[in-house]
Amino acid sequence: LLEHLNDTVKPEVGEIPAYVLADPKVYDLEHKKVFMKTWIFIGHESEIPNKNDYMLRDLAGYSIIVSRNADSSIKAFYNMCTHRGMKLCRADKGNKSAFVCPYHGFNFKNNGDLIGVPLQKNIYGEELDKSTMGLTEVRIESYKGLLFGTWNDEAESLDDFLGDFKWYLDILVGRAEMEVLGAPQRFVIHSNWKIGADNFVGDSYHTMVTHGSIAKLGMVPSATYSKMGYQIHSENGHGLNLGTPNPDFAFPEELIEEYKSNLSSEQFEVLSNLKNMIGNIFPHLSFLISHTKVKGQLISNTTVRLWRPIDHDKMEVIAWFLVEKNAPEDWKRRSRESFVLTFSPSGIFEQDDTEVFTDITAAAKGPMPVMKNLTYNYTMGLHRKPVDFIGPGVAYDDKFSEANQRNFYKYWLELMNS
Ligand code: FES
Ligand code: FE
């Protein structure tokens, strides 16, 4: 399979074979080489703001408990009791200083220690050494509130993995104190996960067609659909499209001082001129700042979303809505409204996109004699040279290019070979 992949996946010349979206064997190898090796988004720190808050999350197909301890630090554990392996915690989220196993009642403190065993002295005598039976800790790190986990003890630090791309993530989630409002919205669609990542990492080209109806409704400025702006990517497959310029500041004016104190002057300049910002942190954490007109006023909304693979042709979309914690309550409410109207299971953009994602996946599962030779065309912008930009990375001076998708697949292939 690897030999075949290396022969047919050619991002440098803009050729990606269709079978990479539909072959279960590719999916199995991805799980091993990509999802078990790299940093995977698990949530935002503000989802568990108080001591002893916890949430259950998925890390590459395995359940983990992410918990804020009595000392306010956040730890994560494999969600498995060390006695006989029962799934220790089964609620999505809550507040608990300790977890009692539903099978025999072993009791684990939220720092992972086994602290109680029913009838211990009576049935085990003095023999049971509880100190060797703590929960298995999972490696997690955070950047500006974004929590990531990995099963790979040898993975580089999250900081190194994000590299230059942090400059843009500062604008996304470091511009102010941010909080997640509401539980993340989750829905399952019949799509390969890479289509979502591919779409967000660099595909602004589809907006004027797929989402054409929204401009006609006047919900977004029609300029959103122009190609004006920048396409930027950095190492490790990360990339984004920056829509710019924008004459209207779509963020709360009250927070300008907070933005200025958190961002460099160059970053603040990007924020001030932002029309939208759409990107993907490799492998599958996409993000978006988009502006929508709500009752005549242009309002930004910020979302991060995971294309969590369930199978080669199925994924769960998990969408978090983020907002400036210190924004006026009314502004927060309207921002959330603009998120729900656009990117959520009931959002218009979301419905436009997911229909495309599922149809591409279905077609990629076509008959083998045909599929054998079918490749997607990723040559857009191959002839162009990067330009200077005030932020880091390789930048192109408009958004209609497939350089970011080529960069995504280049790193994907590198990991598949690792
Ligand atoms: Fe958890 Fe037995 S499996 S106490
Ligand atoms: Fe879209």
TrEMBL record:
Record bears the keyword Zinc: no
User: What is an example of a GO molecular function annotated in this UniProt entry?
Assistant: oxidoreductase activity, acting on paired donors, with incorporation or reduction of molecular oxygen
Which keywords appear in this protein's UniProt record, sorted alphabetically? 2Fe-2S, Aromatic hydrocarbons catabolism, Dioxygenase, Iron, Iron-sulfur, Metal-binding, NAD, Oxidoreductase
InterPro entries according to UniProt:
ARHD_Rieske_2Fe_2S, RHO_NdoB-like_C, Rieske_2Fe-2S, Rieske_2Fe-2S_sf, Ring_hydroxy_dOase_asu_C_dom, Rng_hydr_dOase-A
Domain spans labelled Rieske: 39-149
Q: Does the keyword Transmembrane apply?
A: no
Q: What Pfam family does this protein match (any one)?
A: Rieske
Q: Which family does it belong to?
A: Belongs to the bacterial ring-hydroxylating dioxygenase alpha subunit family.
For this protein, the record's PANTHER family field holds: 3-PHENYLPROPIONATE_CINNAMIC ACID DIOXYGENASE SUBUNIT ALPHA (PTHR43756:SF1), CHOLINE MONOOXYGENASE, CHLOROPLASTIC (PTHR43756)
The identity of this protein, by name, is: Aromatic ring-hydroxylating dioxygenase subunit alpha
In its UniProt entry, the species of origin is given as Cytobacillus kochii
